[in-house]
Specification:
Strand order of the largest sheet: 3-2-1-4-5-6-7
Order of helices and strands: EHEHEHEHEHEHHE
Number of helices: 7
Number of domains: 1
Helix content: 40-55%
Radius of gyration: 17 Å
Largest sheet: 7 strands, parallel
Oligomer: single chain
CATH class: Alpha Beta
């Protein structure tokens, strides 16, 4: 009998995370999504998933606060048992995050620490604590960024953390290979629509001008690739960084 697949998507209430969650549901995968503060949007995403015939649960989580991770995994374990009838899940998608655009000469230590806690420390230790719940043969997908490859003024702290995530992903792939768990990074460029980055006609025009396909990125451009990495077709993809920019700064 085939075991029903379950994904944990952090920051799954809106933007890229919401699109990932819905694309996974369209592929027949049940979803546990986390949200930081916006329960209303999280419930809308749950409703969209259940309308597709899949099960979904939304749990609160501040990925910047590692002291809350033990409590989260108690809630997560309870949800797995009561909603899905299991004690394991299959896919971890580390998506939760924010953006920061500040010149490096003006970046404060608090801002730097926020970026580190959300995008690096939180991802590192949330993944670590998830491993006892993740099935052998599972998948880890970390959301990186194009700014780990291409430098843009004002993105230094954010870009540093995403560059570290690319490295972390390779170590995950190496150290978890004995369990049949793959780890890959997906690196979107500027994604407009429901995210945290600034969104003006001028910024959109600038980004489109840098992109070979001549338009800005949308959440729909990311979700399907993550769903692919959770499919059997991607079973031999491991330790890779896949950039999703439409050909930005080639």
């Amino acid at each position: 009998m085939t075991t029903q697949k379950i994904a944990l998507v952090t920051g799954g209430s809106r933007g890229i995370g919401k699109e990932i969650a819905i694309k996974l549901a369209e592929k027949g995968i049940d979803v546990v999504l986390t949200y930081n503060s916006n329960l209303t949007e999280a419930e809308k995403t749950v409703a969209a998933i259940t309308s597709l015939g899949r099960k979904a649960v939304a749990l609160p989580l501040n990925t910047a606060d590692t002291s809350g991770f033990d409590g989260f995994f108690l809630e997560f374990s309870n949800a797995l048992e009561t909603v899905f009838g299991t004690d394991r899940f299959d896919f971890l998608i580390n998506n939760a995050g924010t953006s920061l655009t500040v010149p490096l000469t003006e970046t404060t230590e608090d801002q730097f620490d926020d970026m580190m806690n959300i995008h690096l420390k939180g991802v590192y230790f949330l993944t670590q604590k998830s491993l006892s719940h993740l099935r052998d043969g599972g998948r880890i997908i970390n959301i990186s960024s194009a700014v780990a490859r291409v430098s843009f003024a004002g993105a230094s702290a954010y870009g540093i953390m995403k560059g570290a995530i690319d490295v972390y992903t390779r170590f995950l792939a190496l150290e978890l290979g004995a369990r049949g768990i793959t780890a890959n990074a997906v690196a979107p460029g500027a994604i407009f629509g429901g995210g945290t980055m600034a969104d003006t006609p001028e910024i959109r025009a600038y980004v489109a001008g840098l992109t070979a396909l001549g338009r800005v990125g949308l959440p729909d451009d990311v979700g399907g690739v993550v769903a692919f990495l959770c499919s059997d077709d991607a079973k031999w993809v491991n330790g890779q960084r896949i950039e999703l920019t439409g050909g930005m700064n080639l």
